[in-house]
Amino acid sequence: MEAIAGSNRTKSSKRHVFNLRMFLDSGGVARKIVGFPGKATIFAQGDPALTVMYIQQGGVKLTVISATGQEAVVAILKPGEFFGEGCLAVQPVRIESASAIAPTTVLIIEKNEMSRVLRVEHKFSDLFISYMLARNIRIEADLVDQLFNSVEKRLARALLLLAQYGKDDQPQRVLHQVSQETLAKMIGTTRSRVNFFMNKFKDLGFVKYAGGLQIDKSLLGVVLHE
What we know:
With 226 residues, this protein is α+β, with helices and mostly antiparallel strands. The protein is built from 7 helices and 11 strands.
């Protein structure tokens, strides 16, 4: 549950996001800002990987499609997060698709400009490295979750992470843009299984539907229960 708990780390990351936004908004990076309506494609799997992107507002869904046409949701990203950073390594093309889950504003940085800034702006570089390390830890935790936890636990963990429980900076307890189909693709199951457990969580008072999907902190007990 390190991905959910840990207020000290959260306070530190909150400072990082704030300073990073100030730096990006100050003109320290040559970039352009683009708005996308909800459900719009930002880039598609197989497109040339030429830019790094930073979410200013809204939200982004990353998905991959297998050779057999099966789709999986890799991540749901929020303001203050990067995506498309694979272009800085050896990714000539996008290995996933990115789409807006709500009206979204994205700051787009060309690959060469991002590489330049990482070399010359040491504070920015440190923050970006910290972000990437945290992303890798999250990916490892997601893999362990998929391998060893039940569908019920995986769903509970996904809901808590989306609701940002364990964070100090005004956690989002109401989810407006996440469908049961998306949740199924996130945790590797069917929509019918998600519907079954969502009804169970509702009956137990863990979630309720009022102006969106509201997540109660008591859902944490499902994740912690052996």
